[in-house]
Amino acid sequence: MNTSVQQNGQIAPGIQAMLQVEGLNAWYGGAHILFDVGLTVGKGEVVALMGRNGAGKSTTLKSIMGLLERSSGKISFMGKDISRWQAYQIARAGLGYVPEDRRVFSDLTVVENLETGRQPARHWPDGTEGFFWTQESLFSLFPNLGNMLDRPGGKMSGGEQQMLSVARTLMGNPFMVLLDEPSEGVAPVIVEQMARMILALKEKGIAILLSEQNLHFAELVSDRAYVLEKGQVRYTGSMRDLLGNEAIKQKYLTV
Ligand SMILES: Nc1ncnc2c1ncn2[C@@H]1O[C@H](COP(=O)(O)OP(=O)(O)OP(=O)(O)O)[C@@H](O)[C@H]1O
Ligand SMILES: [Mg+2]
Known about the structure:
By secondary structure, the chain is α/β, with parallel strands linked by helices. The chain has helices at residues 57-64, 87-92, 110-115, 135-141, 143-146, 158-170, 188-203, 215-221, 239-244, 246-252, and strands at residues 17-28, 31-42, 46-50, 70-77, 80-81, 95-98, 176-180, 207-212, 224-229, 232-238. It has one domain: P-loop containing nucleotide triphosphate hydrolases (Rossmann fold, 3-Layer(aba) Sandwich), CATH 3.40.50.300. Strand 7 (176-180), helix 7 (188-203) and strand 8 (207-212) form a beta-alpha-beta unit.
């Protein structure tokens, strides 16, 4: 199996592709929302999926996770064609997902919320050990959570809930995580923590595809970016090139 990709300077040569999306189309009822979206994410890469409200960022992530009733196109994860898989099968294959609305259980404590995400440890296809998160290793990444073990989810701030939602997904020991707008509605001090956390995951070799409107946040963490508008990819390049491209930023990103 050789899944290394090298097209249009996307993934750097020699880096293994974790996720490859080709010709993705998606609908809500009769409304056609995504048009031939294509993207790739390499092992240990952080890739930002950018675009204004309604551009199709969340729809792209949901389609990848098998959560839409109607979509077409080819999605490969770690060399396996997951296009027709159910969401739970995709999660079990090691693709984690943190939805936009966080879905923290408000009556469960931090510890109980974390336990709902637990999945067995996995191995990489070559047999080497994957990730194995314990509550202790998570709390070293999310020190705040470690100080509120018994707090019910409903009594946490938006940023704390966002952290908990990410931590719960990590309890599933994913090889890659889809994060839907991690910085949205989160206080600036938590945004910095969130950025550090994402970089720590990258350092461990976890690939991340994040949907983001906040250019500052994307800049802190991302290697590359795709820019969506009206359900189509309008731009792709390194984060640095995007930051220097005033025309693209004006046209598709700034409000
Ligand atoms: N459940 C739904 N039913 C019908 N249309 C939807 C539904 N969810 C989203 N849409 C439409 O699909 C398009 C893409 O929405 P999507 O949520 O993917 O955008 P987004 O880029 O994530 O935006 P935001 O930054 O606001 O989260 C929008 O036109 C939106 O109105
Ligand atoms: Mg969204």
